[in-house]
Amino acid sequence: MTALLDAARDLFETLDAEAAIAEEAGTPMTDRAVALCRDAGLYGTMITRDAGGAELTIGESLDVFKELARADGSTGWVVMASSTAAAYFSAFCPDSFVQQAFGDGPAPLVAGQFAPNGVAVPDGDTYAITGAYNFGSGIEHADWVGCGSFTAPTDGTPADYMFAVVPKEEANITGNWEVLGLRATASYDYSIDSTVPADRTFSFGGHTRHRGGPMYDLGVLCLTEVGHAGWVLGVLRRAIDEAALIARSKQRMTGKTTLADDPRFQYDLAMAESTLQSGELWIRDAFHRAEQHAMAGGGIDPAIDNDVRQSTTFLTQQACRVVQDLYLHIGTTALRDGPFQRCFRDLHAGSQHAMVSPAHTFEFAGRLLAEPEA
Predict the structure, then answer these.
(1) Which end of the chain is more exposed for a tag (fewer CB within 10 A), N or C?
(2) What distance in Å separates the CA atoms of residue 118 and residue 127, rounded to the nearest whole number?
C-alpha cells in the first residue's frame, strides 16, 4: 500500500461530497476538490521521480486511480488524465522544460486533447501550432494545455505526429460540454494558435526517455490505458456497492420484500460483481506482463499491448451492461440524483472514449486472433 493510496482513501467522503456540490451546481470539479488532490500529490501518481512525481508502478497507479474514481467518476477522470499526460512530458522532454513546468512545487495540472487535430510549422527552435480540439478534461484548473499536431516541414522532410503543451492562458476555451455523464470534468472544446518552443514537444513515435524507469518505454498509448483501466474499476466498484446499499431498503410497488431478497436482483448483482472481479484480474495480469517486459528491456510488446487495450475496453463496455441491469431493478430511485445515478451516467460517458472503443480495440484483436500462427 502506498501513501498516495492512503491519501485517496482518506479523501473518499470529502470528494464524494464535493462531487455532489458540482453536480447540483452544474459546474466543473470544485476548487476544493482540485486543491485536496493536488496537495495530497495525487496528480503526481505517474510522473517521474526525477520530475518530482511519485513514479508509482502500474499496479500501484491502478489502485490510486481506482480509489479516486470510486469516490467520483469526474474526479477520477480528471486526475488520471492529468497524471498520465504530465507523465509523458516528465519522461520525454529535455531538462529545460521539465525544470520550468515541474520545478519544486506540486505536480503541474495538464489537460487537453492529443489527437493530431493541429498543424505545427517548424521555425528554428519553435513551432507555430494551430488547431481546434475537443475534450479538454480538467482544463478549468489546468496549468498546461495539450495539443497534438502533425508537423508541416518546409524542407521536404516527412511529417511527424507531435505532442506539445502551451500555458493555459494561450488556449481559447469555447465550451460545449452539455453531456450525459462526466459533467464535472468540464471537458471543454478549445483552440490553439501559439508559438511553442521545441523543448515543450516530443514525437509520438520517436521520443527519447530522458528520465524515469523502463516503464515509460511502454509509450503513450499503454500508459494512457492505465488511467482508463483504474477509472472503470473504481466507478464499477462504486456502482455495485451503491446498488447493494439501495436494495437493502428498497421495496418495489409490486414487491412483498426488499429488493435485496429478490432472486433476480441477487443474480444480476452477482453477475456485476463477477464481471468486475474477472475483468480486474485480466487487466492486472495484462499490465503486469507489459511492465515486466519493459523492465526486462523489451519496451512494448504488441501482443501484450493488445491484451492491455482489450481487457480495459472489455470491462468498460461490460460495465455499462451490468450496471444497466441493476438500474432496471432499482427503478425510480435510480432516476434521482445520487451516487448510483452518477456512476450510471459516468460509465456510459466514459465508454465513448477512443481508448476504450470496441471499433478500435476488438477489430484489431480479432485480426490478431485470426492470423495464422508463424
Answers:
(1) C
(2) 11
Instruction: Tell me how crowded residue 11 is: count the other CB atoms within 10 A of its CB.
Output: 20
- Please list, in sequence order, all residues whose beta carbon lies within 8 angstroms of the beta carbon of residue 142, skipping any fewer than 6 positions away: 82, 109, 110, 111, 112, 136, 168
Q: In this structure, are residues 147 and 118 in contact, taking their beta carbons and an 8 Å threshold?
A: yes
* pLDDT above 90: residue 344: yes
Report CA-CA distances (Å) from 231 to 4, 25, 76, 352. 16, 23, 6, 14
d(CA 201, CA 100): 13
How much is the CA Rg of the chain, to the nearest whole Å? Answer: 21
**All residues at 6 or more sequence positions from 317 whose CB lies less than 8 Å from its CB, including other chains:** 351, 356, 358
Phi, psi of 52 (to 5 degrees): 95, 5
pTM passes above 0.85? yes
Instruction: Convert the pLDDT of each residue in 1-41 to its tens digit.
Output: 689 999 999 999 999 999 999 999 999 999 999 999 999 99
Average pLDDT score over residue span 185-194: 98
Closest CA to 49 of 180, 216, 228: 216
* C-alpha pair distances (Å), 96 with each of 89, 99, 140, 288: 12, 6, 26, 33
Which has the closest alpha carbon to 229: 281, 274, 268?
Answer: 281
Interatomic CA distance for residues 39 and 46, integer angstroms: 16
Helices 73-92, 31-39: inter-axial angle, 10-degree rounding? 50
* 138/75 Cα distance (integer angstroms): 9
C-alpha closest to that of 36 among 61, 4, 63, 62: 4
Q: For residue 154, what pLDDT is reported? A: 84
pLDDT digits (tens, 9 = 90+) for 196-236: 999 999 999 999 999 999 999 999 999 999 999 999 999 99
Here the cell at position 315 is: 470491462
Residue 359 has pLDDT above 90, yes or no: no
